[in-house]
Amino acid sequence: MQIVIINSNATELYVIHKILYQIKDIIYYYMSASENVRYIKIQKIGEGAYGIIYKAQDVQTEEIVALKKFKLSDNEGVPSCALREISILNQLNHPNIIKLISQIIINKKLHLVMNYYDMDLTEYLKFNHEEFHLKNIIYKILLAVEFIHNRKIIHRDLQPNNILITNNEPVLIDFGLSRVLSPNMTPGVTQLWYRAPELLSNCNTYDYAIDMWSLGCIIAEIALNKPLFMGSSEIHQLLLIKNIINGNEWFLHNSQFAKLNNLFIDLINVCISLEFLEIIIS
Amino acid sequence: SYQNDNLQNLLDDQNVSSQCLANHRIREWARGKMIDWMIEVFASNNDDYSNNDLTFFRAANLLDAYLRSSYNLNELDMYLIGVTCILIASKIEDIYQLSIKTIIQDLSHNNFSLFQIKQQEQIILETLNFDTCFPTVNDYLQYLFLQLFGQSKNQALQIIQET
């Protein structure tokens, strides 16, 4: 009996020993893994067709960053929107355009590491602000857009959600849809409310003017505190544009704009002019 | 002023790709042959939505840029690098990119596997540090044409400029 008990003890000990070794292996595995993982995800911020955005913390510098994770398809290698976004952001160096800190591959998935800001223009406009802050924001946005247009890049997705605010300074983000100007481009870009008429009518030869249209809508939104055209479909959007704009001096007859400065109205008017040639190009 | 800014940016962002064969055992003839083959590919690939010219120039300049910043490559490696450059250029310039399947079957006649091309793509992108949007020869030519013929009212010159 005793021998049997000792035997069983021995086997138990042996089993425990083996388990301990396995646990040790697992702990070592995770420790080595955590050395590679420099960023710890805190929460999910947003999600789109391209992938998911996380708020994350840098382990080394304890800085809060935004991680943009791309869905890698198995058959096509690096996705084209990721490729365009990285190469364009690498090229741009401007205080009002987001900086790409680095691009890393975690678990065979491509992640972009960018600065984190917690407020976008839509949220910013929910509070009351001084007029010169708003003017400054508009001016800085215009500067940033001029900067990218000078490099032959069209943003193609300008909307208040893609403009972040930090210390009353705007930062342009999300270059996932932007590209270098070319003769043929796809018309299905920009969020519907900020989409230019040439895109709504499915034209595939367009240029920087579509960004200026979106800018005009954004500036009007900053002034009025609500979006200018809120269409529910492409046709509805076109109808809204047609109804509001009758002739050249439509702003003067519109009660919404009565309280605004004349120069301000001119700026919006020039940005969203229906005459194709009159829309200013940067 | 807009034109001046444009020129300044073109010069600032320019990617020097001369002397690209200095670090390799590749003859100039082999690189020339590769470029000829690229022209052939883009001339035959008549898709409505493919910006053939832009994609070709992008591919050729990517090839040069990669050769310039890498070392000790063989003439035998050229084929895989060229095919992969076409893939990357198509991803940047085209509305509908060439799929890897087309590239394997039609362009490389099943000489390379999916894994090989994906691996080479990653190597090229990491070597160039994802810096693939630099202005190509095409952009400089366009600027030159605009300066030379832009203000002219001569019809023949305007036709040249439009093409």
From TrEMBL, chain A:
Protein name stated in the entry: Cyclin-dependent kinase 2 homolog
EC number(s) reported in the record: 2.7.11.22
Reactions the enzyme catalyzes: L-threonyl-[protein] + ATP = O-phospho-L-threonyl-[protein] + ADP + H(+); L-seryl-[protein] + ATP = O-phospho-L-seryl-[protein] + ADP + H(+)
Source species, domain of life: Eukaryota
Residue ranges of domain Protein kinase in the record: 39-282
Family, per entry: Belongs to the protein kinase superfamily. CMGC Ser/Thr protein kinase family. CDC2/CDKX subfamily.
This protein's record includes keyword ATP-binding: yes
GO cellular component: cyclin-dependent protein kinase holoenzyme complex; cytoplasm; nucleus
Cited PROSITE patterns: PROTEIN_KINASE_ATP, PROTEIN_KINASE_DOM
GO biological process, one term: regulation of G2/M transition of mitotic cell cycle
Binding site for ATP: 68
GO terms for MF: ATP binding; cyclin binding; cyclin-dependent protein serine/threonine kinase activity
Keywords from the named record: ATP-binding, Kinase, Nucleotide-binding, Serine/threonine-protein kinase, Transferase
PANTHER family in UniProt: CELL DIVISION PROTEIN KINASE, CYCLIN-DEPENDENT KINASE 2
Subunit structure and binding partners: May form a complex composed of at least the catalytic subunit CRK2 and a cyclin.
